[in-house]
Amino acid sequence: MKKLTLLTAVLTMFFLSSCRDIINTVLDALPPFDVPFSTSVQVPFATVSTTTYTRTPEIPMNLDLDAKIKQNDPKYSINNLKSVKLSNLTLVYVSSQLGNKLDVIKNARIYVKSPGKTERLIASAYNNTNPDGISFNVEDSELLDYFRTTENSLIIEIQGSRVTADQIKMTINSGFKIKVQL
């Protein structure tokens, strides 16, 4: 009798989880898609210590996901947005005033910010030695609340590998995976 009860419980759980997967598939209004974001920024870079982090001024993204959703399907809007996650982030060296490259950055952390929300760590890179680019490890966290508005920005915290000062121009390349449902 105990085996029959256990077998019935397992079959019921299997059936319920299968139904949930089917319902979630039906609710997906659009297949998840990537929204790229790229911008070139001139970052003032000054390190007086190699043990503390220096913050850059906010870098406006102003990412309009409502427009991106409507571009994929005009029937849907920001009200149908169910998930936003960072999928990739890199910094690419462009130029600098004094000849420094990205290898002056030993460690870096990137935060997202929007009005009324606390800053949230979204990516980090440690022990960088590459002068031309930095690839970040992205946090697997839900960022939906930061992108319900177009007023969103990035903040970079930098720890230098040596004491220096410069203006470094770099390109930020990132991608956000978004999910839209009914």
Would you give an account of this structure?
The chain has 182 residues and is α+β, with helices and mostly antiparallel strands. 19% of the residues lie in helices and 47% in strands. It has helices at 2-27, 65-72; strands spanning 28-47, 54-55, 59-60, 81-96, 105-113, 120-125, 133-135, 137-138, 153-160, 164-181. The strands form two sheets. Strands 2, 3, 5, 6, 8 and 9 form a six-stranded antiparallel beta sheet that branches. It has a four-stranded antiparallel beta sheet with strand order 1-10-4-7. Strand 5 (105-113) and strand 6 (120-125) form a beta hairpin. It is globular and about 75 Å long. The chain starts with a helix and ends with a strand. The model has no long low-confidence stretch (mean pLDDT 86).
Oligomer status = single chain
Number of helices: 2
Strand content: over 45%
Poorly predicted runs: none
State the end-to-end distance. 43 Å
Q: Report on the biggest sheet.
A: 6 strands, antiparallel
Radius of gyration in whole Å, from Cα?
22 Å
Order of helices and strands: HEEEHEEEEEEE
Gross morphology is globular
The assigned structural class equals alpha+beta
**In total, how many beta strands?**
10
Please estimate the helix content: 10-25%
- The overall average pLDDT, rounded, is 86
Short descriptors:
single chain, 182 residues, alpha+beta, six-stranded antiparallel sheet, four-stranded antiparallel sheet, 2 helices, 10 strands, 47% strand
Question: Can you summarize this structure?
Answer:
The chain is 19% helix and 47% strand. It has 2 helices and 10 strands; from the N terminus they run αβββαβββββββ.
